[in-house]
Design brief:
By secondary structure, the chain is of the alpha/beta class. The chain has 19 helices and 25 strands. The strands form 6 sheets. Strands 1, 2, 3, 4, 5, 6, 14, 15, 16, 17, 18 and 19 form a 12-stranded mixed sheet that branches. It is globular and about 70 Å long.
Length: 556
């Protein structure tokens, strides 16, 4: 089979104006970026205000492994399958970050015959949204240091500046740095550091803002640091939020592209699922729900991170509801969770498979507990043993879980037809109210304990000294009623990436709790998770190049 980039480059794309027309978007509501991608005016939301919403299908997964689950690929393939059935559908996806693209994880445009295109553009600079987020964040950071240098009227404590600079690249040496070195004209020396752009509060705000004025208000609420008597200083105190909004006003508009089979997709925003709330923008999702009868939305990593945060943060802030959920699993990943070696996952091992199935079942139980009907998508690799596929299906049958095999990577929408049929059946269930893990007005520790014990299956929570101090300060300042966004490894239900399956006898370790007042949540940093990734020993960038004709090669 051809590589992903070869398939994408061979595809015959439709003009984006035609994709827009099929979705009910007029040419005057588009801002074209070439022939095959465009930004959509927010006026579309105003025009469709009061119209009926489509059904929202949330795609999540079992705990990710190095073997790959194909969550984005299945999401796109499911959208293609529903489109092929003659139904009005729209995918909503996050934009890829350059860090993983040039690192190890890869892009976020799907794979094989289930991709959004133009794949190269989407995986690289796209329409510049992520760069705009970095510019807005770093403008604020520059204004903080300038204020301190120019008299510090607000009394910001240089040792208590919490805002970090950002860049959209994996660069571990920038995690902890010192700025302001040099002479008096070079600023005040203080500790600082970088986050990857996708982990920034500005990215979270872009993806949770309901409109331009809400974006401006939220940016003004960003707490950049504290005074010596521990009072918060906000972006609006520095008069920075207006300029930040100007930098982001075009980035707030969703990006319209297409799948390989010509179905529409809105690709917008890029918060990571293990260190942020992990879902594309609210404006893109709301727009899709007004334009299509079915919207397929993907959330970051496993259901313990993506689905939980979607219910407890996104739905709570926006009023969205989830009509059905798809949990993606593979035999390979299940075997890894059952103790199989990474280099042996392609070989039949029914015992390892059986030991790994409980990990999938935890995610099924969690999503069901939210009050959402569940379908498991068994993403099939060409060399999967029939005995193993049947073993997973039998376990799901015993548990009363809807399921279907998916071969979308190889077959595109045709390979997602069985999954689409099961999803459409699941959508016939009577709607139930969403059940969040814990009410947001409960104390911070109570919320963390509920997430740790109910979602991760931990025995409880352990707090480092800094986390204890953070919680005490945040509750004293009145931020304790915000929901909690847990930043932890995506590779385990626990906070230890080495623990597979369903770990027992462990406690979630909370190192610190950060305030994202503009985004409307707290970030609990757990275990050894880092907010600025590093490159692997052999970065994917080493294999990416351009040929004599100017075509990109080696991009997956």
């Amino acid at each position: 089979m051809s590589t992903d980039i070869e398939i994408a480059q061979q595809a015959k794309l439709q003009p984006i104006v035609d994709i827009a027309k099929g979705l009910g978007i007029g040419e005057e509501e588009l801002e074209a970026y070439g022939r095959y991608k465009a930004k959509v005016s927010l006026d579309v939301l105003d025009r469709l205000q009061g119209g009926k919403d489509g059904r929202l299908v949330l795609v999540t997964a079992m705990t990710p492994t190095a073997a790959g689950e194909g969550k984005t690929t299945v999401s796109i393939g499911l959208g293609q399958a529903i489109h092929a059935m003659g139904l009005r559908v729209c995918n909503t996806l996050r934009e890829p970050s350059l860090g993983p693209v040039f690192g190890v994880k890869g892009g976020a445009a799907g794979g094989g015959r289930a991709q959004v295109v133009p794949m190269e553009d989407i995986n690289l600079h796209f329409t510049g949204d992520i760069h705009a987020v970095a510019a807005a964040n770093n403008l604020l950071a520059a204004m903080v240091d300038n204020h301190i240098q120019k008299g510090n009227e607000l009394g910001i404590d240089p040792k208590r500046v919490t805002l970090r600079r950002v860049m959209d690249m994996n660069d571990r040496v920038l995690r902890e740095i010192v700025v302001g070195l040099g002479g008096p004209a070079d600023g005040v020396a203080r500790p600082d550091g970088f986050l990857i752009t996708a982990a920034s509060e500005v990215m979270a705000i872009l993806c949770l803002a309901s409109d331009l004025q809400d974006l401006r208000r939220r940016l003004g609420e960003v707490v950049v640091g504290f005074t010596r008597d521990r009072q918060p200083v906000r972006a609006r105190d520095l008069k920075a939020h207006g300029a930040m909004t100007v930098l982001l006003k075009d980035a707030l508009k969703p990006n319209l592209v297409q799948t390989l089979e010509g179905s529409p997709a809105l690709v917008h925003g890029g918060p990571f699922g293990n260190i942020a709330h992990g879902t594309n923008s609210l404006v893109a999702t709301r727009m899709a729900l007004k334009l299509a009868d079915y919207v397929v939305i993907e959330t970051g990593f496993g259901a313990d991170l993506g689905a939980e945060k979607f219910v407890d943060i996104v739905c709570r802030q926006s009023g969205l509801r989830v009509d059905a959920a798809v949990i993606v699993a593979t035999c390979r990943a299940l075997k890894l969770h059952g103790g199989a070696k990474k280099d042996r996952v392609g070989e039949p091992d029914i015992e390892a498979l059986k030991r790994g199935i409980p990990n999938l079942m935890v995610h099924v139980e969690n999503v069901r507990a939210f009050g959402v009907p569940v379908v498991v998508a068994l993403n099939v690799f060409t060399n999967d043993a029939l005995e193993e596929l049947r073993g997973v299906e039998l376990a799901l049958d015993v548990a009363g879980v809807r399921h279907a095999r998916a071969t979308v990577h190889e077959d595109g929408g045709v390979g997602g037809r069985a999954l689409a049929t099961e999803v459409l059946e699941a959508l016939k269930a009577a709607p139930r109210p969403l059940e969040p893990v814990c009410a947001p007005d409960r104390p911070i520790k109570e919320k963390l304990d509920a997430i740790a014990t109910r979602i991760y299956r931990a025995e409880g929570v352990r707090y480092d000294r800094k986390a204890e101090a953070d919680i005490k300060l945040l509750e004293r300042l009145g931020f304790g009623a915000l929901p909690v966004c847990v930043a932890k490894t995506q590779s385990s239900l626990s906070d230890d990436p080495k623990l597979r399956g369903v770990p027992k006898g462990w406690r979630l370790t909370v190192n610190e709790v950060r305030l994202s007042a503009g985004a409307g949540f707290l970030v609990a940093v757990c275990g050894e998770v880092v907010l600025m990734p590093g490159l692997p020993s052999e970065p994917a960038a080493e294999g990416i190049d351009i040929d004599a004709s100017g075509r990109t090669v080696g991009l997956f």
